[in-house]
Specification:
The protein has about 300 residues and is an alpha+beta fold. It is built from 11 helices and 8 strands.
């Protein structure tokens, strides 16, 4: 790690004495990022740490270059290096914690198998699996993987990435697992476009494993998808009937996971009507769209 050199700041009467070393100043900044969903602006960091704005900016810039932090138009957040300090799954613990009650509620309500997964390269990585009577027939496991392009979980996430990102991740590894698998990148892009038109619902019938069908949707924050939730059944399962429940689950998980983002956004757009989870009336209207299967 390149050396971070401290620069002396001019003394200002009444201002709290600053830590003398760059490492201490860096630690002051990093301590303000309490979790994956924390988003802070330069002004936030300077105010909370009492560092001069120029000093905070200089350290933030180095932390971004070294992958300790990320920087987007929404502000600074923990980077892949910081998230990786806790072990392999980094921020996955927060995702699992936010999703857990929703996964169990889905399983109880539907009796189906529920999955939670993240994208890892060209694969989905299973973070959680909540079983029902059908669980032993589903060849998935926590910590296991499956190709993203032939799973509803993977397609739900890929649909919200830029086409160039999809090409880079999937283009060189796309392959056919069953006779239903999408096996070329152009067809995959067409499918991802259909998923976006369905408000993010991804379907898969026998593409990864024969006789297994899934419906999934992505958990999304302001910067894109972070994970996805699916319901799994056999080939005869009427997925259209349970699809709105999946959409509601990912919306509620996102509310829990990105509460800091919502609070920040609310302060900027005070007076606007807040986002809400879907009412049963809305779900029923949405279900009616696909009664004849024409939305698939």
């Amino acid at each position: 790690m390149p050396a971070l050199s401290a620069e002396s700041e001019p003394a200002v009467p009444g201002r709290r004495e600053l830590p003398p070393s760059m490492v201490e100043r860096m630690t002051l900044i990093m301590d303000e990022f309490t979790g994956r969903s924390t988003r802070l602006t330069l002004e936030d960091v300077a105010r909370r740490t009492h560092l001069p704005r120029s000093t905070a900016h200089r350290i933030l810039d180095q932390l971004v270059r070294l992958d300790w932090l990320d920087h987007t138009s929404f502000g600074y957040s923990l980077g892949k290096r910081a998230l990786g300090l806790g072990g392999r799954d980094g921020s996955h613990g927060e995702i699992r914690e936010a999703a857990a009650p929703l996964l169990h509620r889905l399983q109880i309500r539907t009796g189906m198998v529920v999955h939670l997964a993240v994208l890892d390269g060209s694969d989905v990585f299973y973070l959680d699996k909540v079983g029902g009577r059908f669980a032993t027939s589903v060849p998935s496991r926590v910590g296991g993987r499956a190709p993203a392009h032939c799973t509803a979980l993977g397609k739900a996430i890929l649909a919200w990435l830029e086409p160039e990102q999809v090409d880079a991740l999937i283009g060189g590894s796309i392959s056919r697992l069953t006779n239903q698998t999408i096996a070329d990148i152009n067809t995959l892009h067409q499918e991802l476009n259909r998923i976006r038109q369905r408000q993010g619902l991804a379907f898969e019938r026998g593409e990864c494993f024969p006789d297994i069908s899934c419906v999934a949707a992505a958990i999304r924050g302001q910067e894109g998808p972070v994970a996805s939730i699916s319901l799994v059944g056999d080939a005869r399962t009427p997925l259209e009937k349970v699809a709105p429940l999946v959409l509601d689950a990912v919306r509620q998980t996102a509310l829990a996971l990105f509460s800091d983002q919502r609070t920040s956004r609310a302060s900027r757009y005070a007076g606007r009507t807040p986002d809400r989870t879907w009412s049963m009336e809305t779900m029923n209207r949405f279900l009616a769209v696909g009664q004849n299967g024409d939305w698939l």
